Amino acid sequence: MSEKSKISCYSLRSEYDLNSLRVRKLGLERKSFGEITIRLESDVAEVFPNADAVKEALKFLIRIVQ
């Protein structure tokens, strides 16, 4: 393979704009785009099977308080 074909093989197309690329980190320091992440203590997390269950419980509590 020639040097020129190696370069073109690994080059990105002009429509890919890497300046607007958003990268997520792994672990606790990661960013979520447009969402808020909340850490639950282990005893609380055991009660809820998933994020939707937590949202439903919090929305129910909000309706009761209002």
Number of domains: 1
Structural class label:
mainly alpha
Number of strands: 0
Largest sheet report: none
Count every helix, treating DSSP H or I runs of 4 or more residues as helices: 3
Rg:
22 Å
Instruction: State the end-to-end CA separation.
Output: 70 Å
Please give the structural blueprint.
Blueprint: H1 3-10, H2 42-45, H3 51-65
Describe what this molecule looks like in 3D.
This protein has 66 residues and is mainly alpha-helical. The protein has one domain (3-65). Helices cover 41% and strands 0% of the residues. It contains 3 helices and no strands. The protein is elongated. The chain starts with a helix and ends with a helix.
What would a concise description of this structure say?
This protein is mostly helical and 66 residues long. The protein contains three helices and no strands. It is elongated.
List keywords for this structure.
mainly alpha, elongated, single chain, 3 helices, about 0% strand, about 70 residues
